[in-house]
Specification:
CATH class of the largest domain in chain A: Alpha Beta
Number of strands of chain A: 22
Strand content of chain B: 15-25%
Distance between the termini of chain B: 29 Å
CATH topology of chain B: Pyruvate-ferredoxin Oxidoreductase, domain 3
CATH superfamily of chain B: Pyruvate-ferredoxin oxidoreductase, PFOR, domain III
Largest interface: A-B, 63 and 63 residues
CATH architecture of chain B: 3-Layer(aba) Sandwich
Radius of gyration of chain A: 27 Å
Largest sheet of chain B: 6 strands, mixed
Distance between the termini of chain A: 45 Å
Oligomer: heterodimer
Number of domains of chain B: 1
Order of helices and strands of chain B: EHEEEHEHHEHHHH
Number of helices of chain B: 8
CATH class of chain B: Alpha Beta
Strand order of the largest sheet of chain B: 2-3-1-4-5-6
Radius of gyration of chain B: 16 Å
CATH superfamily of the largest domain in chain A: Thiamin diphosphate (ThDP)-binding fold, Pyr/PP domains
CATH topology of the largest domain in chain A: Rossmann fold
Structural class of chain A: alpha/beta
Number of domains of chain A: 4
Helix content of chain B: 40-55%
Shape of chain A: globular
Chain lengths: 615, 197
């Protein structure tokens, strides 16, 4: 049985925030879930995917976040308890349905998880998705611990049904990827059969309908505000004259800081958990009992502005500060010392931390950036393309493991803004510069957001090459399936959609399908594509070796070695191909045979044919 | 309650997250409040992996610079890189076997001299426990068990209020039964090695 289904009410488990959210949803009787994976949200969906195999929970990895939200919207309007999970930038993709789903509302409880990533551990930006609550008018909950993540997920379903609105559950990486002790609750029965009562004047958002629906949404705001003011997740802790208002993981740092500073008694903390609508009545009470306030929130000064507005309506003129105090600013995640020193500075508390050891004589250390794995087919594709198109061509890239092609010596990434941007921006680069443009996109990303860009390119007669790196899985986020995946490998009915047929159907005339481990053939395909006057596509087809190890282990492979007699130390293998299995020993290139998976590409790179399989 | 902050550093693939999870589960068995933080996603493709365990009732799950009570390094240059987490009150437990970063192979960096590095660490912190965890893992029967050797050394170091038995119990809960013998042996070898340092 799945770990998250095992525990009895009252049991304690050490759960990852994401596991706690999944358990909370299961306890709430979740019937229907959709997702597109993205760090730091991925493990929530992974648990649903696993639980689906042994229960009547419906779960799907949808093509992208917009699709995920729309699929779930149909189920939620039909009365099922639904959840949609994504990373913060995923909500940009899903923003279109979200904004108007707020108008139609839902019948079954719907919780939308947005997992933000302050400090950009694994993201292209650190946008603050608390703005989405304000933009859409939807309520938002923000947990401080894994336990609260579970509790709030449960509450979010009830809240959603009370208001007939989707509810946003906003986490940050440190909540998603922290483990804490979580006390389990009872699992409510799952209602899996929905029903839909036709009511086009509530659900079909033509202008005449939406005018009325917007009025309703504004009325729901008042109701939500009342609930926020009464919510146990919004709480004043302590009765001191100094005030701190805080939200999310920052609350943990504040609590620890006041403990460390031995100053708890001097403070009132307003802990905000039901963060939108901002609980104005509680904030008023808080403001009347304190003389000076510090706002501690990561990223944007949202509560800082909310609190100042409340103070103004209250006519309470006390110092309210946040960004700009001590080490508090709009950049990156907060951490315990950053919060502690800022509190000490603002309130004039004496504080002597434990000084860090002297690092002045620590020698410079070699970098250890994340890297494409040994035998990764992306490296082979990048190598072949670069051999043909050189440094002059422009290489828009996309989001996935292959973004790591950015690093030297491959240096095969010139532009990236979001999922799918490789294809569409390639058109702009080609028109504007007249240069060769070769864009890279992964298989999952192609289905997520690449197809519309490719249709646009064909329709508008652009000239560039799109390389679709088909490694048959969503590798970066943990090998989730996507529409192009052979589901039979995962023991499920196969629904595989052929990328080649899609590309052909779009009308691309120059298509090459290559095996990237065959360097010569791959290079020929690249040359042919560059020579073509129009949109050309190369599908580089090789399963991710990490994924293959799990689902279709290859027959025993021969590892490779460098022949000392043949090697003339050109080092093309290291300087151009740069597989992490190479290392230098006494100034000679060697292959770490524990890392080598026998892909044989380096043997095609070596001008002396000095790299050969071990007999 | 006395708060203990333990930081684990290593290279992707060394089993960092399993160690911090086992320590966390051991704390749960011991009835002690615990938070664990992990790094997932992009950072794992052969890069540096850091996790932390905070015992004793703090709410934070991450550890600021200078505030680790124990730093456990699965790879010596990574121990050195994470030295900023230490103060002169910190106990450092490190593996001495290097895992060369690729940047060294392409001439973009120089790997530090291990002896010098250990001397440097020794001078700065309260206590250094250095052991060849790779050799001990091999001896136990699995090169993959470096992380468990290091946990054994942690148990011996008397720096956390959790017993070796509690850690072993938690270890068994987190790995397949067929791996118990190898891993428990790795744990014991780490424990023993630390007692001789």
């Amino acid at each position: 049985m799945h770990e998250l289904l095992k525990g009895k009410p009252g049991d304690k488990m050490l759960l990852l925030g994401n596991e706690a959210i999944a358990r909370g949803a299961i306890e709430a009787g979740l019937a229907f879930a959709t997702a597109y994976p993205g760090t730091p949200s991925s493990e929530v969906a992974l648990n649903f995917y696993q639980i689906k195999q042994e229960s009547d929970l419906y779960f799907e990895y949808s093509t992208n976040e917009k699709v995920a939200l729309e699929v779930a919207a149909g189920a939620a309007v039909s009365g099922l308890r639904t959840m949609v999970t994504m990373k913060h930038v995923g909500l940009n993709v899903a923003a279109d349905p979200l904004m108007t789903l707020a108008y139609t509302g839902v019948n079954g409880g719907m919780v939308v998880l947005t997992a933000d990533d302050p400090s950009l551990f694994s993201s292209q930006n650190e946008q603050d998705n608390r703005y989405y609550a304000r933009l859409s008018g939807l309520p938002m909950l923000e947990p401080t611990t894994p336990q609260e993540a579970k509790d709030m997920t449960l509450e979010a379903f009830d809240l959603s049904e009370k208001l007939k609105l989707p509810v946003l559950l906003r986490t940050t990486t440190r909540i998603n990827h922290s483990r804490g002790i979580v006390t389990l609750g009872k699992i409510r029965p799952r209602q899996t059969q929905g029903s839909f009562k036709k009511d086009p004047f509530s659900y079909v958002t033509v202008p005449a309908v939406s005018r009325n629906l917007h009025i309703k949404l504004i009325q729901k705001y008042d109701q939500a505000l009342q609930l926020s003011n009464q919510s146990p997740f919004n709480e004043i802790i302590g009765a001191g004259k100094w005030g701190i208002i805080t939200v999310g993981v920052s609350f943990d740092y504040v609590q620890d800081a006041l403990e460390d500073l031995k100053a708890k008694g001097s403070f009132s903390i307003l802990k905000v958990g039901f963060s939108y609508p901002f609980p104005e009545e509680i904030a008023k009470k808080f403001l009347s009992q304190v003389e000076k306030v510090l706002v501690i929130e990561e990223l944007e000064p949202i509560m800082e502005e909310n609190l100042r507005a409340v103070a103004q309506t209250l006519g309470r003129n006390i110092p309210i500060q946040g960004k700009g105090i001590g080490q508090l600013n709009r950049l990156f995640e907060y951490e315990p010392a950053r919060v502690r020193t800022s509190i000490a500075q603002y309130f004039g508390l004496p504080y002597q931390g434990r000084p860090t050891v002297d690092l002045s004589n620590v020698p410079p250390l070699p970098g250890r950036p994340p890297n494409l794995c040994p035998g990764c087919p992306h490296r082979s594709t990048f190598y072949a393309v670069k051999q043909v198109a050189g440094d002059e061509a422009i290489y828009p890239t996309d989001i996935g493991c292959y973004t790591l092609g950015l690093l030297p010596p491959l240096s095969m990434a010139d532009f990236l803004i979001c999922m799918g941007s490789s294809v569409s921006s390639a058109a702009g680069f080609a028109k504007a510069t007249g240069k060769h443009v070769i864009a890279f996109i992964g298989d999952s990303t192609f289905f997520h957001s690449g197809i519309t860009g490719l249709i646009n390119a064909v329709h508008n007669n652009h000239k560039f090459t799109l390389v679709i790196l088909n490694n048959e899985t969503t590798a970066m986020t943990g090998h989730q399936p996507h529409p192009g995946v052979n589901m039979a490998l995962l023991g499920q009915p196969n629904t595989q959609i052929s990328i080649e047929e899609v590309v052909r159907g779009i009308g691309v005339k120059q298509i090459s399908v290559v095996a990237p481990r065959k360097v010569k053939e791959t290079k020929e395909a690249v040359q042919k594509s560059l020579d073509y006057n129009g949109v050309s596509v190369i599908i580089s087809q090789e399963i991710c070796p990490l994924y293959a190890k799990r689902v279709a282990p290859p027959a025993k492979t021969r590892t490779f070695m460098v022949s000392e007699s043949r090697c003339k130390n050109h080092r093309d293998c290291v300087n151009l191909f740069a597989c992490p299995a190479f290392y230098l020993e006494e100034n000679r290139v060697k292959i770490n045979e524990n890392l080598c998976i026998g892909c044989a590409v380096c043997s095609q790179v070596c001008p002396e044919n000095a790299i050969m399989p071990r007999k | 309650m006395n708060i203990k902050r333990i930081v684990f550093v290593g290279v992707g693939g060394q089993g960092n997250l399993l160690s911090s999870r086992v320590l966390g589960e051991a704390a749960l068995l011991a009835g002690m409040p615990v938070n664990v933080s992990e790094v997932h996603g992009m950072a794992q493709r052969g890069g540096v992996v850091e996790s932390a365990v905070v015992l004793g009732g703090a709410l934070s799950s991450i550890v600021s610079d200078g505030e680790a009570d124990v730093l456990i390094g699965f790879e010596p240059s990574e121990t050195l890189r994470a030295l900023g987490k230490c103060s002169k009150e910190t106990t450092v437990i490190t593996n001495v076997t290097p895992l060369m970063p690729f940047t060294v192979a392409v001439g973009k960096g120089v790997y530090p001299d291990i002896k010098e590095a250990l001397k440097l660490i020794q001078e700065k912190v309260k206590r250094l426990i250095a052991l060849n965890a790779d050799a001990l893992a091999e001896e136990a029967g699995s090169a993959m068990a470096v992380n468990i050797v290091m946990l054994g050394a942690l148990a011996q170091s008397n720096t956390v209020p959790i017993t070796a038995d509690q850690m072993k119990e938690a270890l068994k809960m987190n790995i397949k039964q067929k791996l118990w013998d190898t891993n428990l042996k790795a744990f014991d070898l780490g424990f023993e090695a630390a007692s001789k340092v």
